[in-house]
Amino acid sequence: VANRGLALQHMPPELRDDKEVVLVAVRKKARALEFAAPRLQGDLEVVLEALKAPGGHKALPFVSEHLMSDHRIAASHSKELCQLKDAPVQVEALENSQEGRPVQN
Q1: Which of 19, 38, 31, 26 has its CA nearest to residue 2?
Q2: How many CB atoms lie under 10 A from the CB of residue 82?
Q3: What pLDDT sits at residue 54?
Q4: Alpha-carbon distances, residue 72 vs 23, 30, 56 (angstroms)
Q5: What mean pLDDT is reported for the chain?
Q6: Which residue from 33, 31, 52 is spatially nearest to 42, judged by alpha carbons?
Q7: How far from 102 is each of 12, 22, 39, 96, 98, CA to CA, in Å?
Q8: What is the DSSP letter of 32?
Q9: How close are the terminal C-alpha atoms of the chain, in Å?
Q10: How does DSSP assign 10-64, residue by residue?
């Protein structure tokens, strides 16, 4: 995964659930977040690293729902959030995070 982040998809589940392995992968290729274990798709450090990587916006569809309302994600990727298929949910999360209200699921 150090050379090819998307190689994470071919890794066994225990490596997809290893934070250090996933961090290496998402730093190389943001979209590798798609193949990370669900708990790591909801890990703020992993998600922020993926979003900082080249093409970071491509990781947005794989960010766990509870992080979509985090102001650090919403503020830096508001345009991309609104373009996702689930735009109404994402827009609500963005609006609520900017107003300091929690998102209600």
Answers
A1: 26
A2: 12
A3: 84
A4: 18, 17, 14
A5: 78
A6: 33
A7: 35, 28, 20, 6, 10
A8: G
A9: 35
A10: GS-HHHHT-HHHHHHHHHH-GGGGGGS-HHHHT-HHHHHHHHHSTTGGGGGGGS-
Please tell me whether the overall predicted TM-score, pTM, comes out greater than 0.90 for this model.
no
Q: Which amino acid is at 38?
A: P
Pull the structure tokens for residue 51. 């979003």
Residue 1 token pair: 């995964």
Q: Is the pLDDT of residue 41 over 90?
A: yes
Residue pair 21/11 in contact (Cβ under 8 Å)? The answer is yes
Return the sign of the alpha-carbon dihedral for residues 53, 58, 63, 69.
positive
Kindly state the tokens that stand for 17: 């659930």
Tell me the C-alpha distance between 18 and 77, whole Å. Answer: 26
- Write out the two tokens for 98: 């900017």
Spatial separation of the C-alpha atoms in residues 11 and 66, rounded to whole Å: 26
Tokens for 23, please give them. 């961090």
Q: How far apart are CA 88 and CA 103, in angstroms?
A: 12
